[in-house]
UniProtKB/TrEMBL annotation:
Top-level taxon of origin: Eukaryota
Signal sequence residues: 1-20
Keyword Signal among record annotations: yes
The organism of origin for this protein: Mya arenaria
Keywords per UniProt: Signal
Protein name: LACH-like protein
Positions of the Ig-like domain: 24-131, 145-219
Length: 347
């Protein structure tokens, strides 16, 4: 045994224990706290060998000021408003067990701004701050997702055009974004049924891409946020004859009604019926008719309706002959014509 070493250890020991006391220490690591917005967080700072002349402080390292001192032992040092009924923003609860003292910092009514690093240190009067024991704890305030780009409720595009839909979201942790079609259909451009990105590309769209699109922002913190946007697609009208052929007898004051359905889809399939009424059909009316529809995008004129000659009156407005004299027939015809005129005015 080298007595010199023992003497040196003795000296060290003496040096370490001023007045026979051990130096104060923070003994345990500060367990990081992960909790939700609106809730409360608890950070423990456990110290040993704390004597008079020592004070335990909590600071918030991520404050705007860059290190606000929150507490001095169990007293709150910074402004401490009541954040909900009977609850102040900060509390320090001290528990003693033998030589161990736990300074539990309780933060109530958690907000996103409370997120960050908290430092606990023991201030030793007379020593320079560089030698004060300290430990750092971490607080994560989870925030449910908020979609911040809900500014468009309806997106309008012409067939063949390109564009995109946008779904930006905030939240802690950063939310996952999922685009789907509300009706469960496929997304444009062969992208399948799901798209996990803030930007949903709409390339060279077709009328089948019209519909309701849904963006879900989810980060496992309830509730997820949802954004619905309707995609309107303008396209060339589509025409279709109600009946390809219409018959009517000539020169007897009978009318012919040619009907055509025109689809001018935007969001939902909107179909309108258009009627061409040919009054008092004559020989030179027997021909082919076209239903031409045109809008800003283009025109469609494929539909053809043929008006052909029949021997008898055709259609709903034909006169009936049963047991009626000649004068009665002419009255009936006049009545028919007046009804037709009215119908035309209403169309
Ligand atoms: C913090 O300390 C208190 C009191 O000593 C104890 O009840 C609690 O379990 C501790 N929490 C953590 C996360 O260590
Ligand atoms: C897209 O998001 C959904 C829902 O969050 C998830 O189930 C799926 O695995 C994700 N797909 C990809 C390719 O990341
Ligand atoms: C857009 O789509 C149409 C129909 O699917 C196709 O004929 C055309 O080539 C496409 N245009 C581009 C630029 O991809
Ligand atoms: C995002 O999605 C991925 C894959 O589905 C998943 O592993 C991850 O936990 C999700 N993130 C959040 C914050 O929900
Ligand atoms: C006109 O509309 C019909 C559907 O009614 C469609 O099949 C046809 O392709 C369209 N024609 C043109 C030139 O767009």
């Amino acid at each position: 045994m080298n007595w010199g070493i023992i003497a040196a250890l003795g000296l060290l020991f003496t040096f370490n224990t001023v007045n026979g006391q051990l130096d104060p220490e923070i003994v345990d690591e500060i367990i990081p706290e992960i909790t939700s917005q609106g809730g409360e967080a608890k950070l423990n700072c456990t110290v040993v060998n704390k004597q008079s002349g020592h004070t335990v402080h909590w600071t918030f390292m991520d404050s705007y000021a860059g290190g606000d001192i929150i507490s001095n032992d169990k007293d709150i040092f910074i402004t401490n408003p009541e954040c909900k009924e009977g609850k102040k923003k900060y509390e320090v609860i001290v528990n003693k067990f033998n030589q161990r003292e736990t300074y539990m910092l309780k933060i109530n009514c958690l907000e996103f701004v409370d997120y960050g690093y908290y430092k606990c240190y023991i201030q030793i009067r007379g020593d320079s701050s560089a030698s004060w024991p300290s430990k750092i704890g971490y607080l994560v305030v989870q925030v449910p997702p908020t979609i911040t780009s809900k500014n468009v409720a309806v997106k309008q595009l012409d067939e063949g055009q390109s564009g995109f839909l946008q779904c930006e979201a905030t939240g802690v942790p950063k939310p996952n974004i999922t685009w789907v079609r509300s009706d469960g259909g496929m997304l444009p451009g062969g992208m399948g049924a799901l798209w996990n990105s803030t930007i949903l590309p709409l390339n060279n769209i077709t009328k089948d891409n019209r519909g309701l699109y849904k963006c879900v922002a989810d980060n496992q913190v309830r509730p997820p946020d949802v954004y619905l946007v309707a995609l309107q697609v303008f396209f060339k009208p589509e025409t279709k004859a109600v009946q390809d052929t219409v018959g009517q007898a000539q020169n007897r004051q009978f009318d012919a009604k040619l009907e055509c359905r025109i689809a001018t889809t935007t969001l939902r399939f909107q179909e309108s019926w258009y009627t061409l009424r040919i009054k008092n059909v004559e020989a030179n009316d027997y021909t082919k008719y076209f239903c031409i529809a045109q809008n800003r995008i283009g025109r469609n004129a494929t539909t053809m309706i043929t008006l052909f000659e029949t021997m008898e009156c055709q259609g709903a407005n034909c006169p009936t002959y049963e047991g009626l004299g000649a004068s009665a027939i002419s009255v009936s015809l006049l009545a028919t014509i007046s009804v037709v005129t009215l119908a035309k005015l209403l169309l």
